[in-house]
Every structure is written in structure tokens, then in C-alpha cells.
Amino acid sequence: MTEATGALNANPAFSGAIGNVDLAIEFTVTDAPDGTVVYGLSIADGTAELSLGELDSPDLQVTNDYETAVAISRGEVNTQMAFMSGKLKVTGDMAKLMLNQNVINAFAPALSAIDVEY
């Protein structure tokens, strides 16, 4: 999570998208090799932080299975297509989601430089 947090904050597109954003997103990935994984993305004061575990008060909760999470991470599927096909579910403040689409769209590409084992 430390490496991913650094990659997010160092990415010009992502850091540009989070300038005036206050957003907390909790991700739940089901059917992972070691079971369900929960992690959070917290954005405030122009800085992002990823952490393992549940967030206290997430604005949004995103749930998908491991296969979908891997496909998004690899750039094989974008988040909008996963959402539209029902493979990615979002609950919470949908207005905040719509307001921050540029953050969501920049998230996976900003992490693409990290070497991940699937």
C-alpha cells in the first residue's frame, strides 16, 4: 500500500485530478486467492492514501470479484464497462461519484507502473 500510495501521489494525471477533492472509497474484492480483501482510498488536501482494511466513513463502497479487479488493474476492462455490465457494484454517495469521475478514471492508470503479481 505504501508503494501504491507513492505511485498515486507521483502521477501527474492523478495528482491533478485530486487537487480540491475530499473523497473516501472503500473497495471490497471477493473471491481472491486468500479470501475477501478490503482496502480504502482516502483523498484530502491534495493527497491520496491507500490502506488495508475498512474505512470509518466511506463516501462510496465498490465491490467486485477478483477476476474483475485483475482485469481492471491490467487495463483489460475499464471501470465504466465493469459497472455497466454488473461486474462492479457501487453504493454510497452517487452524486460524489459523478462529481469525481476524473479521479476514478485516473486511479487504475496511475497504478499501472507498479509490478503486481496476480
> How do the SSEs run, as a string of H and E?
HHEEEEHHEHH
Could you say which structural class the secondary elements and strand pairing correspond to? Answer: alpha+beta
Mean pLDDT: 95
Shape-level CATH architecture? 2-Layer Sandwich
Instruction: Give the DSSP E fraction (strand runs of 2 or more residues).
Output: 25-35%
CATH first level: Alpha Beta
**The CATH homology group name:** SCP2 sterol-binding domain
CATH topology: Nonspecific Lipid-transfer Protein, Chain A
Please report the distance between the alpha carbons of the first and last residues.
16 Å
Task: Please give a structural write-up.
This protein has one domain (2-111): Nonspecific Lipid-transfer Protein, Chain A, CATH 3.30.1050. The chain is an alpha+beta fold. It starts with a helix and ends in a 7-residue tail after the last helix. Strand 1 and strand 2 form a beta hairpin. It is built from six helices and five strands. The radius of gyration is 13 Å and the shape is globular. It has a five-stranded mixed β-sheet. The longest helix is centred in the C-terminal third of the chain and has 11 residues, at 101-111. The model has no long low-confidence stretch (mean pLDDT 95).
Give the arrangement of secondary structure elements.
Elements lengths: L1 H9 L1 H6 L5 E10 L2 E10 L2 E6 L7 E6 H8 L5 H6 L3 E5 L1 H6 L1 H11 L7
Parallel strand pairs: 1-4
Antiparallel strand pairs: 1-2, 2-3, 4-5
